[in-house]
Amino acid sequence: MAHVTIFGTGNMANAIGGVFAEGGSSVTYISAEESGTAPIVGDIVVLAVPYPAVAGILSAYGEQLAGKTVVDITNPLNFETFDSLVVPAGSSAAAEIQAALPQSSVVKAFNTTFAATLVAKTVGGAPTTVQVAGDSAEAKSALIAAIAAGGVQAIDAGALSRAHELEALGFLQLTLAVREAISWTGGFAVVR
Amino acid sequence: MAHVTIFGTGNMANAIGGVFAEGGSSVTYISAEESGTAPIVGDIVVLAVPYPAVAGILSAYGEQLAGKTVVDITNPLNFETFDSLVVPAGSSAAAEIQAALPQSSVVKAFNTTFAATLVAKTVGGAPTTVQVAGDSAEAKSALIAAIAAGGVQAIDAGALSRAHELEALGFLQLTLAVREAISWTGGFAVVR
Hints:
two-stranded antiparallel ribbon, homodimer
């Protein structure tokens, strides 16, 4: 399928890499220690790092990311207050990243699915569904195909401007989990 | 249980009224034609009307709404473009209504559950769950109890500021349904 490079080695990075690998894609990881020196070999590049770590990757790899699909999975919360996002009102982390990478196709995905639900492929009996937003139809369909090949559902959630709503959903879901109104194996399931 | 007055007689008004009635609450409706003349008898007042119709209700009933719980179910979309909300970035319809009704306890609820899922009480095999946000713990717990008595799950989704995220979720859900990525009997299920 695809060649995927994943920045990050945490729970989300591993869960996402597992889905792609199961779908037959080649997957390479770049850890925080390797970031800045290891080359990007994939055509799909997943930023599976906390939002504050994204800026360093963009400044180190901006030229290498040109022409590639860059997948932003972040939920840019203010983790001190858990009451707001650190991106401008009405905007999104994905929009900020796209502005910094005008020659890349930025896609928002995986920010509304907890790691455990990507591994289990189900959430509350419903199939886990990755919501994908972006302005490049080609980038979205290639990503959706690579996710689906790994046994996880994926749907087109619209233009990159919908990343604002996806990040609001991710924000709300995180606050519910932290307040134990839902569990980390639950969350918002997409029922079709 | 509670005394509920519902503005509106559409699908959502009927579905919401059905839940409350089944839980033993008394339910009265005020139609668009009666609005401005019919008195509000309930302590919980549900604005089950399109967002553009809210302003007229507030101006006609502002004084009568003092001291009451006002439930905002709206999704304030720009229905011409389906690409934005008509409330200021970072704000919400619920926050605008609270600002107009400083003596009422405004609660956001029912904007993330399609009517069919309130009637069926399930969505994709999971129990339908109403997300309730507001700044009055008392108003929220009374509302949650009245909904739960009607056989539908309800959870506290946080302060009224979370209405921004709930409206983003409702917005995204509507765009997915309009684009037929999900059905009107589906949507975002809350898996606990």
